[in-house]
UniProtKB/TrEMBL annotation, chains A, B:
PROSITE patterns: DDC_GAD_HDC_YDC (PS00392)
Name this protein carries in UniProt: (wild Malaysian banana) hypothetical protein
Organism: Musa acuminata subsp. malaccensis
Lineage: Eukaryota, Viridiplantae, Streptophyta, Embryophyta, Tracheophyta
Region (Disordered): 1-50
Keywords: Decarboxylase, Lyase, Pyridoxal phosphate
Biased composition annotated in UniProt, kind: Basic and acidic residues: 11-37
Domain of life: Eukaryota
Record flagged with keyword Lyase: yes
Coiled-coil spans in chain: none
UniProt family annotation: Belongs to the group II decarboxylase family.
Gene Ontology biological process terms, A to Z: carboxylic acid metabolic process
Modified residues (N6-(pyridoxal phosphate)lysine): 309
Length: 479, 479
């Protein structure tokens, strides 16, 4: 029932059925052939030679609010204003509903920035470097630097040894980190686990870098045995390594210490650059007891984290921190980065730093710690309830990402805005995800599931390959 | 009086004196040696072998609002809330003042988005492709696609032949356009005039492309004679060309038709890709009578324009439009762009499209036309007044960027937030720049100037090299 690449046409209803997986979530889907969607929830991935069908050649214009030329008498009749107000009011209602039913993306939707409404009337732009003022006076560098200082302290880098800026999103942080790595080691090979965010592979392509995809364990962590083998094949070239502090799909934390050990024991001492992609967990880990530490006291080069994820922010943003010596290398060696044109973007959103400043100030380390603990508690609650109900489920230690059997019905997936990959789905338990919300999700899931599997007459799929035998509740692995 | 690279330290007062030029404005400064600032306003640039001194090695922490841990009793005393409210109130006051005194940057600060305040409570994210919905429901694609349709119509590209998205800023548009060009012609050489925005040269470096800087005429336009000579040196490789629809400094519009003619007459037919950087004028030109047209009926590949400039928006944003066939080439050929991961960023600000949608709907083509005409009228007014006063000044036809002799006093430059390069400064006349504002600027300038040049006893500098002899009012060129 999907449109083929050949004719490139599909009507609206068809599109809704075959909606592709969310882009933010989906590093692997892109690369490999896939079975058609009907069988995706139940069948294995292997064995189907049919390649994934993507509709190209044509934009799919789903519902869109067209812009119309004002009529000459609009000012008099007020019709235009009325039309726009009605569009916005309806839109606002849908946002309320969509915000309520949301479990799959690691966005903290629980924020109140009412006090900042007064600033929406200003065109705030932190163009260029946070530490070098431009003549454009309507900026928020004083907030931005406050936020950067906070993060540098969190990751243990001295004020005069760090450089950083507030980015537009996690991808910009990764693009920056990998670029810094490449400029430090122009001939370096990029290593990243297969479960890294897709922006890492995009960076490799953009920057024309050789990139080695390293295997992962079932947990989603980088497989250091394979990492070592890959390194040994490129002994003569320095290593640029992306380390995931929480993978997108399984919330797996790469073992930073093991990665460093592998590098140093195999002849790469002082010949590597590590970028830590901490999109979500970069801000949670420091508050988890017994978690291995992400810190610049270890030989890492940069850390990035998203601002709209754990902190919560009306628009995407992120924080990028690196060692100032790397930026200096760039600035002095590279024509285009001289005078510290060291950010990826030029004009930069000046509102985002104020949102972050506001939340960090209000909550403080202690506030975040409380929220992290709540998230982990609630994630365990969800996992336990799913397990009790005989549903395959995995929860990595240190993570609030609960991975489980993909719901069979796409409508259900869409309703709860779950993020799915292959046979698995996940819920990311964020501060706005309460026990109440989880209960109503669980109840609905169980109700639907008894239909999907005809109260046990049909067997749910085996997902041991994705989450490990010990977590799988299929007929074979159920104990 | 500037800190040296060696010790890397400068105190706050020193920093203020040597504040570097604004990054957005400054493609050339970066590359060439510069005299120290004391002489910059009056002396020529050549002849001084002293290289520009940039302070590296250390972040300059100017005033910053530090984030402090909340005290245990903050909830009770309300001290923290009070502190934050006072910071924000003071900040708001300064924004009002800074917004009032602003002439140098092409940002339309005249907008009222009060009706959209109700949406600030939502985390709106258009992650990935605008035409492929993700499962994340809190998005604004229906607004984004409406805006894109409007721009595609403006630049005459059919709905089913364009692809585009709303970017974070002009730089993202340029990064995207140049990347598309490179993927279409992987072996292509990038050509851009010296006065192109610095993001173009940043792209070349990021993407590891060979880049040829083409000379410019005094007006700031690309010199097609030199362009031709450059092409002839690289006959065997396709050409990727950045065409400026309004340069940053002089508001010069490259002659698109002449660029195309030069390419086609010199053996590059069907072997070139043109990206039009229309940051500001991309949206003004269509409304200027007799202006050469930027349109996809000509063999161009992409156009980008900033959203926070002529339209006006609280945060930076931009619009990028390209031919869908190019995106299809990317999507099918390039692993990391399959399934149309075709944007530079992943998560994307969902508020920006709503701001743009709101203004486009309210103003329409007719509204923009009126505003463009007003800007051009006011720009001519400013130019005439400066000329009358005996001040060297240039205004390109079709442009609202008035280029004139750089004010001698940096305090004055900062006060009016002028953008300067070498011996010249400019005012960009935007819709929020009224005759009243220009008058108060002119009066203040003339008052100061009579001090700087001691009522005519000291001669103002010659800037014929920058703006042409006919526009220069120095002792030599004054008629």
């Amino acid at each position: 029932m999907v449109g083929s690449v050949g004719n490139g046409l599909m009507d609206l209803r068809e599109k809704e059925k075959v909606e592709p997986l969310p882009r933010e979530f989906d590093p692997e889907e892109i690369a490999r052939p896939k079975p058609p969607l009907e069988t995706e929830g139940v069948g294995g991935e292997e064995g189907s030679g049919k390649s994934r069908e993507i509709v190209l050649g044509r934009n799919v214009h789903t519902m869109c609010f067209a812009i119309k030329e004002p009529e000459a008498d609009d000012e008099v009749t007020g019709e235009r204003e009325a039309y726009m107000a009605s569009v916005l009011a309806r839109y606002r209602r849908s946002l309320i509903d969509r915000t309520k039913h949301h479990l799959g993306y690691p966005y903290n939707l629980d924020f109140d920035y009412g006090a900042l409404g007064q600033l929406q009337h200003f065109s705030i732009n932190n163009l260029g470097d946070p530490f070098i003022e431009s003549n454009y006076g309507v900026h928020s560098r004083q907030f931005e630097v406050g936020v950067l200082d906070w993060f540098a302290r969190l990751w243990e880098l001295e004020k005069n040894e760090y450089w950083g800026y507030i980015t537009n999103c996690g991808t910009e942080g990764n693009l920056h980190g990998i670029l810094v790595g490449r400029e430090v080691f122009p001939d370096g090979v990029l290593y990243a686990s297969r479960e890294s965010h897709y922006s890492i592979f995009k960076a490799a392509r953009m920057y024309r870098m050789e990139c080695v995809k390293v295997d992962t364990l079932v947990s989603g962590e980088i497989d250091c045995t394979h990492f070592k083998a890959s390194l040994l094949q490129n002994m003569e070239r320095p290593a640029i390594v992306n380390v995931n502090i929480g993978t997108t799909v399984k919330g797996a934390v790469d073992d930073l210490d093991m990665v460093i050990k592998t590098l140093e024991e195999n002849g790469f001492k002082d010949r590597f650059y590590i970028h830590c992609d901490g999109a979500l967990f970069g801000l949670m880990m420091p508050f988890v007891k017994r978690a291995p530490k992400v810190t610049f006291t270890k030989p890492i080069g940069s850390v990035s984290v998203s601002g709209h994820k754990f902190v919560g922010c009306p628009m995407p943003c992120g924080v990028q921190i690196t060692r100032s010596k790397h930026i200096n290398v760039l600035s002095s060696n590279v024509e285009y980065l001289a005078s510290r044109d060291a950010t990826i973007m030029g004009s930069r959103n000046g509102h985002a730093p104020i949102f972050l400043w506001y939340t960090l100030n209000r909550k403080g380390y202690r506030g975040f710690q409380k929220e992290v603990q709540k998230c982990l508690r609630n994630a365990h609650y969800l996992k336990d309830r799913l397990k009790e109900a005989g549903i395959s489920v995995m929860l990595n230690e240190l993570s609030s990402t609960v991975v489980f059997e993909r719901p069979k019905d796409e409508e259900f997936v869409r309703q709860w805005q779950l993020a799915c990959e292959g046979n698995i789905a996940h819920v990311v338990v964020m501060p706005n995800v309460t026990i109440d919300k989880l209960d109503s999700f669980l109840n609905e899931l169980l109700r639907h599931r008894s239909c999907w599997y005809q109260e046990g007459n049909i067997s749910p799929p085996c997902i041991a390959a994705d989450i490990g035998e010990e977590n799988c509740c299929c007929a074979l692995h159920r104990r």
